[in-house]
Amino acid sequence: MTAPDDTHERESARPGGDPPGPLEVRASGVLATEPETDTAVQTAGGGHGPAVPAEENQAGGRKRHPLRTSLIVLVAIVVAAAAGLAASGVLGGSGDDGASEAPTGPSATAKVKRTTLTDSETVSGNIGYGEASTVQAVSGGGSGQGGAGGSGGSGILTWVPKAGDTITRGGNVYSVNQQKTPLLYGSIPFYRTMRSGDSGSDVKILEANLKALGYDGFTADSTYNAATAAAVQEWQDDLNREETGVVVPGDAVVASGARKVSAVQASTGTAPSGPLLIWTATERVVTVELEAQYEDLVEVGTRAKVTLPDGGTVEGTVTDVGAPSNVSDDQSGDAADAGGSDSDKEATLPVELRVKDQKGLGDYQAASVDVTLESESRKNVLAVPVNALVARNGGGYALEVVKPSAPHGVEYVPVKLGMFADSLVEVSGAGITEGTVVGVAK
């Protein structure tokens, strides 16, 4: 951030110790008898208020009318009509004749504290099992009778899992003619017939899975040789298949890891064709449709706090950031008809977070959650409430430091601003230390 969320201007002691004079309220368009433009600072909304002196002991000059007010920069708009301001009470004071007593210090204070500031954004997310995928019957495959795992009218489904079942490496996904079709872990499906003499990434996936399942006598590399074929024959025997030593598409289903069956779309006694079942990952994840304007807050590895419906929290880590997507053409057309043609406002970024502490998610299988993304953090900095900032004449900000030895009990100390977070702002300046007492706007 580059501007404070909330600043305020406070009256300063007059040169020579003169008490402040009464505030004269004039309606918009009425000229003052004593022009004061050289002592006023323009506010964010275009109005004017008295400026805090850039130096504490400013040379003498014409008298100033005191004004104590607080404004929220970037949000509040200063009303131009002086009569309207007076009616709303923003100006404070009254038009009564007579001098008021000089201030002896701020009416409210806070201490400069040393802390960690974290810039974050809280967005909505959902607990679930991630993106679902469909297991399709593979046509023309199978090394057994008619082709286990094949379709095209060959074979009959003799077993399918139930919704809610978890299938791990080597576990049966479905059976055709009482021949199992196991799950293997990998990044690409088996797309060709593999036999001795072949090589490639699919061979490497096959051999790595055979090793993980306890078969040996071969080297798990990317070359299919006689030793690999022997291990395959042993594997086929355990699956109640013909021992050919050759692997074809449909002999196994390849997925990235263990899977949880969410729906079964095929029935036993039918030919294996089309979609057989739908499954997901076995671990719950948190998904977020992030507005594209917050894209800079996330990357793979970004940590986030997930707040559950019951108020509990767990930590999540971003594992995947998808490409931004816009509204559909139909939605865009509707928006255009309604006068809103800016589709960028509808763009979202699919983000997935892994939650290592699955037990911390409780029994929630599907629930809405709040996800707090941390974009920046600064440790061991000095910070004050944002409403302790005072706008300085000529630009910049100061703190109203409580100092009994100073005139009227305060001294305005210029400060450099840093990070803004949680209604606090990082500050640094001469004499500003932990525990320094400063004035704040009520």
TrEMBL record:
Q: A Pfam family in this protein?
A: PG_binding_1
Bias (Basic and acidic residues) occurs at: 1-13
- State the protein's name: Peptidoglycan binding-like domain-containing protein
What are the entry keywords? Membrane, Transmembrane, Transmembrane helix
Domain spans labelled Peptidoglycan binding-like? 199-247
**Low complexity bias (residue ranges):** 310-341
Native organism taxonomy: Bacteria, Bacillati, Actinomycetota, Actinomycetes, Kitasatosporales
Note whether Protease occurs among the keywords.
Answer: no
Q: Which InterPro entries does the UniProt entry name for this protein?
A: Peptidoglycan-bd-like, PGBD-like_sf, PGBDSf
List the signal peptide residues. none
Residue ranges crossing the lipid bilayer per the database entry: 71-91
The keyword Signal is assigned to this record: no
Quote the SUPFAM superfamilies the UniProt record gives.
PGBD-like
Chain intervals with Polar residues compositional bias: 115-125
